[in-house]
Amino acid sequence: MVPDPALTVSELFYSIQGESSYTGYPCVFIRLSDCNLRCTYCDARYTYEDAGRKQQISEILDFVKRYPVFLVEITGGEPLLQDGIYPLMDQLLEMKKTVLLETNGSRNIKDVPDGVIKIMDLKCPDSGMSEHMELSNLALLNHEDEIKFVISSRKDYDWAVEMLQTHILDIQDLQVIRKRPSVLFSPVTSCIAPPLLARWIRDDHLPVRLQLQLHATLWPDSERGV
Prior knowledge:
By secondary structure, the chain is of the alpha/beta class. 25% of the residues lie in helices and 23% in strands.
């Protein structure tokens, strides 16, 4: 029998993907409740401040099946806090979905099924959570995965560049470089203007992608369901 555990869900919705290399595609979102971190800039506090609702995997999959699109993202909160996420990911892959997992970088990703695209944060100092990162995860990422730095200040930017040079960009073997994940720099727009971050990236010739939140541009007055 296929496992059908319950997960605590914050919201299920269908929208346009607003972040990652998949920005712009229609996407079904599975946002799970609870988080083990408390980032200063968090835009989804309701995932841990409000009570979620218990839903069986079968119910979640029924929601996914309403929308004939290829892309599904599991996000939070922190999805890896709930054991039921693993059979959920397995079943989404069996449905031939492209599955994105957004995770905060503090939980080990070794049990994430092959085929799931991991979008992992590395929390910068101004988040208040940089000491909670599981850096061993970097060795488990591949060229389909992505690393995201959310940047609030020049201090965050310099820290992110040092992390790149120390843990990601110092690889010399060509075959390993080809397997390296994409790197995204995303500004906290209330703290740093996107053109300023763009100038720093340009001036330092960084092999990273500037990421702006498309959903925040499309629906600036909506906090949920986008």
